[in-house]
Design goal:
Elements: E1 4-22, E2 28-38, E3 46-49, E4 54-69
Antiparallel strand pairs: 1-2, 1-3, 1-4
């Protein structure tokens, strides 16, 4: 796992961060903790998603992003690339 640096090149989106919450019966759910609005036209170009934080992107309009990680892609086994 590593930090993820997200840079929005074009478009508009929200990067949504979550935390795991375990209920008394042991059920694990995700609770939104932060919503980061990215829009180059508004001067909001990017954000950093901390290592180990669940996240997703909600696209508001067609977008192009660049995502960079602190380590080599897939090095920690959290992501894989399958050639077709």
């Amino acid at each position: 796992m590593s930090n993820e640096n997200v840079i929005l090149i074009k478009g508009r989106l929200d990067e949504v961060l979550y935390e795991e919450v375990t209920s008394e019966d042991g059920k694990v759910t995700l609770r939104e903790t932060e919503r980061i609005h990215l829009c180059p036209e508004e001067g909001a170009y990017g954000c950093q998603v901390p290592k180990g934080v669940w996240h997703t992107v909600e696209v508001i309009e067609p977008s192009v992003i660049y995502e960079g990680k602190d380590k080599k892609y897939g090095e920690d086994g959290s992501e894989t690339f399958v050639s077709m």
